[in-house]
Write a structure and sequence with these properties.
The complex is a heterodimer. Chain A is built from two helices and no strands. Chain A is mainly α. Chain B has three domains: 75 residues; 165 residues; 192 residues, Rossmann fold, CATH 3.40.50.150. Chain B contains 18 helices and 16 strands. Chain B has a seven-stranded mixed sheet with strand order 12-11-10-13-14-16-15, with helices on both faces. In chain B, strands 1-2-3-5-4 form a five-stranded antiparallel sheet. In chain B, helix 4 runs antiparallel to helix 10, helix 7 crosses helix 8 and helix 8 crosses helix 9. The chains are: A mainly alpha, B alpha/beta. Chains A and B meet through helix 2 of A and helix 5, helix 8, helix 9 and helix 10 of B.
Chain lengths: 84, 468
């Protein structure tokens, strides 16, 4: 067997080995998928909490504005009634 | 060294181990775990856990100084003994569901007191009658802000995924759990659940997304580990939210296609009359009143009618086995409703749970756990002999080894159930006669009473071990 044929065989076996072998950490890693999932759910929970906080503030702001407008309208109407 | 026996299954935690001293069940808490244990104990969490029936009653023992020196143990705790150790693969749907909810409720209770559970091993929950109880005190650890739920994957594998298979697909996971002590992976579960189940947010995230992350981990382990090492802290509210989300989902799960099984209503629909049933009940009652057993084992218990008679007559605790999981579920729900000391388990007597796990000692086989003061074997022998071709001598050998006294029923070949069992059999069944049963009983025990049930022609033999 000449050297170039042997090298080709070794290279072929090498490619085959690395394409078939299982990732080394696949069986020593106990729960990384679970931790990433919790991280994602935790981040999502923070996002939802933040959005709902700002949403509530926006609603409060709009309601306050509306209440103020209504109050102004009510005051004006009262004043008009007094004038009458 | 004291005359103690270390529990072979208690090897995973380097912070301590369980050992037995005669009938006493003790746990060594090693010095490396002492500070955590003291902090939790001094906060009153352990006492409160016991009071609220989350945790098995536990007390510190002042003895075992020699043992403590040898294993660098700081404390020895003594636990109340569980009457019968059972395993998740022997549980019916309701038992697995209750155990899962117990785990989550205990976690929520602990988290509100800044304590967490380090794992979610289903074997850490046992049943006393129908009540689940947590037994592994060393799983408790102080909670530090931002910490992740380290037992989450284990919870999914051992509780959530098996329950989903049962509830969504309609397949009992017991044989799988028996073969896979670590539980059922999210990857495998995702392959079996229908795509429509993704409409549930809990199933989508805890099964499908987790399965996808598991695949990513397998493909790119280094990238996965680096993303974990740079992870943000998990807020306590999010941790609590995870527990509550799973609790809500599991609370709503029910068995799919829970139709009546062949044996589920056996105690209502059977081939013998009410008079015969009342005779059997009075035989159980008389024997219980005579020998006052603290533990009864009921083989082929069905919905537990005779176990309940035994308990009513003064027996301390009853464990029943049945190979029909629907009947086991029904028996458990009856036990739960009546709050009795009856624990029904799913067991095929011809293929009982084996000794398995590390060195085949981590989980005990059924035979090693099957010790009682009284055994009831009604309508069992013909199933094993005619149905499973087991020799009558071996069946008698096993039944009489369980308890020193007991009741065995012989069902004659004229009984309507026998032709049904033989209908599709072409081979010659092993020898099955009343005379042979009597001969084999006489070789091992003393027959104290023989009662013929009319009109079915069934016979009940009361026996006791020779020399008693």
């Amino acid at each position: 067997m000449n050297m170039s044929k042997k090298n080709t065989q070794i290279l072929g076996f090498g490619i085959l080995f690395f394409s078939l072998v299982q990732p080394a950490l696949a069986y020593i890693d106990a729960g990384s998928a679970s931790l990433i999932l919790q991280g994602l759910l935790g981040a999502l929970a923070i996002f939802v909490a933040t959005v709902s906080l700002y949403w509530r503030r926006l609603i409060d702001f709009l309601l306050r504005k509306k209440t103020t407008l209504d109050k102004d309208e009510h005051d004006k109407s009262n004043e008009r009634n007094k004038e009458d | 060294m004291c005359a103690i026996r270390r529990e072979p299954g208690s090897y995973r935690d380097s912070r301590g181990f369980v050992f037995y001293d005669g009938d006493r069940v003790c746990r060594s808490v090693h010095r490396i775990a002492a500070a955590d244990y003291e902090a939790i104990r001094d906060s009153g969490v352990i006492a409160e856990s016991v009071r609220q029936r989350f945790l098995i009653p536990t007390a510190e023992s002042s003895g075992y100084s020699e043992l403590r020196q040898q294993v660098d143990g700081a404390y020895v705790l003594e636990h109340e003994r569980i009457p019968f150790i059972s395993y998740p693969y022997e549980w019916c749907f309701r038992q697995l569901k209750l155990a899962a909810l117990h785990h989550l409720e205990y976690q929520m209770f602990l988290l509100s007191r800044d304590v967490m559970l380090r794992d979610a091993n289903a074997f850490n929950i046992q049943f006393i009658g129908s009540a689940p109880i947590f037994i592994d005190l060393l799983s408790l650890a102080p909670y530090r802000e931002g910490e992740y739920w380290l037992g989450h994957m284990q919870f999914c594998r051992q509780f959530l995924n098996p329950l989903l298979l049962w509830s969504v697909v309609g397949v009992p996971p017991n044989p799988w759990l028996r073969g896979a002590l670590e539980g059922i992976s999210s990857t495998a579960t995702a392959k079996m659940l229908p795509y429509s189940s993704m409409l549930s947010w809990t199933i989508l995230t805890h099964v499908f997304v987790q399965a996808s992350l598991e695949r990513r981990r397998a493909a790119k382990p280094e990238a996965t580990l680096s993303s974990i090492s740079s992870r943000r802290p998990l807020p306590k509210a999010a941790y609590k939210g995870l527990l509550e989300q799973l609790h809500r989902k599991i609370s709503k799960l029910s068995r799919k296609n829970s139709k009546d099984s062949i044996w589920e209503k056996y105690s209502q629909k059977n081939s013998y009359s009410e008079t015969e049933e009342s005779t059997k009940k009075s035989l159980v009652l008389n024997l219980v009143q005579n020998c006052r057993p603290s533990k009864v084992i009921d083989l082929g218990c069905n919905d537990g009618v005779y176990s309940n008679v035994a308990l009513g007559g003064g027996a301390g605790y009853a464990v029943g086995f049945d190979f029909d999981i629907e009947a086991t579920d029904r028996a458990f729900q009856l036990s739960e409703q009546k709050q009795t000391n009856f624990l029904p388990l799913y067991v095929d007597l011809a293929n009982p749970s084996p000794a398995q796990g590390w060195m085949e000692g981590e989980r005990q086989g059924l035979r090693d756990r099957c010790r009682a003061d009284l055994v009831i074997a009604f309508a069992v022998v013909h199933h094993l002999v005619i149905g499973r071709n087991i020799r009558i001598a071996e069946v008698v050998d096993w039944i009489t080894s369980i308890a020193p006294v007991g009741l065995i029923e012989f069902v004659p070949k004229t009984d309507p159930v026998i032709p049904i069992m033989l209908a599709l059999r072409d081979e010659e069944p092993v020898e099955y006669t009343e005379e042979l049963l009597i001969t084999e009983l006489n070789r091992r025990v003393e027959i104290t009473e023989k009662t013929r049930l009319d009109p079915s022609g069934r016979t009940i033999f009361s026996f006791r071990r020779l020399g008693l």
